[in-house]
Amino acid sequence: MLDVIGSGRAFAAFNGEQRVTRWYHNRCQAQSAAERLLRRSRQLRRPCLCCGAKFTSEGPHNRLCNQCRREG
């Protein structure tokens, strides 16, 4: 879950303290960008950092395939 933070003319989505979208002029634009980012990050096929095999990742936090995760 990303938080949309800002006021006035500057809104952006944050993951904790890290800004993950650019600044937008209204909250609705920032929220839409955050939702697109979450959808896209969930659907990416990423290479496993251990064996290099491509797998469908849940997001940037999920970088090991299931087999490597079980073995590690």
Characterise the protein shown here.
The strands form 2 sheets. A 3-stranded antiparallel β-sheet has the order 1-2-3, covered by helices on one side. It is built from 2 helices and 5 strands, in the order βββαββα. The radius of gyration is 15 Å and the shape is elongated. The protein has one domain (3-71). The chain is of the alpha+beta class and 72 residues long.
Could you give the order of the helices and strands? EEEHEEH
Strand proportion: 25-35%
Identify low-pLDDT runs.
Answer: none
The Cα radius of gyration reads 15 Å
**Biggest beta sheet summary:** 3 strands, antiparallel
User: What order do the strands of the largest sheet run in, or round the barrel if closed?
Assistant: 1-2-3
Structural class: alpha+beta
Mean pLDDT: 89
- Overall body shape: elongated
Tally of helical runs: 2
Q: Helix content range of the residues, please?
A: 25-40%
> How many beta strands in the DSSP annotation?
5
